[in-house]
Amino acid sequence: MTDSDDIPQIALDWHRAGRGAALATVVQTWGSAPRRIGAMLAVSGAGDMAGSVSGGCVEGAVVAEAIEAIAEGAARMLEYGVADGDAFAVGLACGGTIRVLVQPVGSALPEAVLAGLTEARAARVPAALVSPQDAPPRVETSGHAERFRMDRSGFEEDGETFVAIHNPPLRLIVVGAVHIAQTLVPMAQAVGYDPVVIDPRSAFASAARFPGTRLLDDWPDDGVRALGLDGRTALVLLTHDPKLDDPALTEALRSEVFYIGALGSTRTHAARLDRMRAAGFGEDDLARIHGPVGLDIGAAGPAEIALSILAQMTQVLRRGA
User: Fold this and answer.
1) What torsion, rounded to 10 degrees, do the Cα atoms 45, 47, 51, 56 define?
2) Which of 97, 216, 266, 290 has its CA 20 to 30 A from that of 132?
């Protein structure tokens, strides 16, 4: 996830190295706060920091508070806003207000709990760091289905228990190393996806056409199985060739990928659906396939089509439809 990257692991490493560490998390925002709820900052006892809770506005103040919290071994709830003279002094003058929970590792945030969180993240298991006001934090990997789907941290209905969602990083698997893919891949990288391109045709899937991109020359169904398909994965099929698209599509329909998009005309898509029905998939399964792929924005040319695909991926990820 782009908002927290490897911040929990960094905090754990600092703690285990004897440097002291605290995890600072944005728990509430109002107005035009610069970071979303769940954004994280790791602070060492010496004042080193990794991550961000405000894009630079209040980091200095949070670091100072975190160092004191590490020494005291107690959590702190901080609030900064334009009406707060201290916040104005450090640059939060954009009309926003944020609350930040600071949890020293080893005391307010037990080492074993943070280790469990980092293990879940490494295994691509969605995890929630649940922090009640009057009880130790805990890690939960179930019971937060809607939060996991929406990637949405926040307070529970009691207004006191904060749930920080730690989803696996977003991943985009593209089948078909075509011109649209050449534009879609860097666009997806810019918004936080880890892209992989699968195409057994070496003339298409070359490093020259996709610099710095992971390429697999496997048959698509073998490739997606090797990568693994989960709820943080989007699959986009761009070859127009059923021999390449259909095997990967079949694997995707049996998985929990959050987005499936398939290039082709309305007639091509209708034929695709008929093939999937013949393969035993029901109408609920077929409704998961976005085809023709992308939002209908009148896109013309590979770049605009790629834009429409990424926009639709974002819409499904954030709104569920």
Assistant:
1) 150
2) 97
CA distance 167 to 235: 18
CB atoms within 10 A of CB 106: 18
- Report the chain's C-alpha Rg in angstroms: 22
Count the neighbouring beta carbons within 10 Å of the beta carbon of residue 103: 27
Tell me the whole-structure pTM to 2 decimals. 0.76
Sheet holding 40-44, edge to edge: 49-51, 40-44, 21-30, 97-104, 76-81
Q: What is the DSSP letter of 22?
A: E
Instruction: Give the C-alpha distances (Å, rounded to integers) separating 314 from 107, 138, 190, 194, 308.
Output: 38, 30, 13, 14, 10
pLDDT of residue 31: 67
Tokens 């990424």 sit on residue: 310
Q: What phi and psi, each to the nearest 5 degrees, are found at residue 252?
A: -65, -40
Taking phi first (over 0 means left), then psi (-120 to 50 degrees means alpha), and beta for anything else, what does residue 225 get? alpha
Q: Which long-range contacts (CB under 8 A, 24 or more apart) does 80-89 make?
A: 80/54, 81/30, 81/31, 86/61, 87/57, 87/58, 87/61
Question: pLDDT, tens digit, for every residue of 153-200?
Answer: 999 999 999 999 999 889 999 999 999 999 999 999 999 899 999 999
Burial class, 40, CB count within 10 angstroms (exposed 0-12 / middle 13-18 / buried 19+): buried
